[in-house]
Amino acid sequence: MNSIAEDSSSEIKFARKLAANEVKKRKQAITGLTAWLKARASATSDGVLPELELRKLWRGLFFCMWLADKAPVQNELAGRVAGLVHCFSSVGGVRSWLMVCGRTMREEWSKLDKYRIDKYYVLLRKVIHEVTTPCYIDRSLALDCMMDGCVFISSDICMA
After folding, report:
1. N or C: which end of the chain has fewer CB within 10 A?
2. 117: burial class by Cβ within 10 Å (0-12, 13-18, 19+)?
3. CA distance 41 to 52
4. In whole angstroms, what separates CA 116 from the centre of its chain?
5. 10 has pLDDT over 50
6. Whole-angstrom Cα distance, residue 95 to residue 55?
7. Is the pTM of this model over 0.90?
């Protein structure tokens, strides 16, 4: 029971660190999140994390992008966030990660102003690029995952 409480507080801690004002702290949070996601996903039998955990993490990632200033910082951060999809070794894990990504974007999209929207376009382009990379996971599963992920993201954003 104690490990469940520790896990739920882990997402909140990561979300807070991701939304830190300092770039150095945000970079450290992304690095830590990468290791944590890999360990957490491999610890589950099917490689799928609970939706609530993913929602907390994506909320933190959304605000991490919100705070990124200047195009080079935004591009580098978008690439690192998009690369988090590779922390999952199962198609189910990738699907749930992408579904929550799309849902988070849909929920927050209306709050974006004209100054911030471009950085989220960059993020979405990079996420789709990472999902459509053909050598990722397994060639036989890549097309299935790629199609599902793109459909989830595009349908969730279009519904906004």
Report:
1. N
2. exposed
3. 14
4. 18
5. yes
6. 13
7. no
- Smallest CA-to-CA distance from 138 within 71, 86, 99 is with 86
Provide CB contacts within 8 A for 131, sequence distance 6+: 85, 94, 98, 145, 146, 149, 150
Per-residue confidence band for 35, with pLDDT thresholds at 50, 70 and 90: very high
Nearest to 123 by CA among 143, 145, 140, 108: 108
What amino acid is encoded at 110 in this protein? Answer: S
In Å, how far are 30, 35, 41, 70 from 118, measured between CA atoms? 21, 28, 31, 11
| Look-up of token digits 């199962």 | 90
pLDDT band at residue 38 under the 50/70/90 scheme: very high
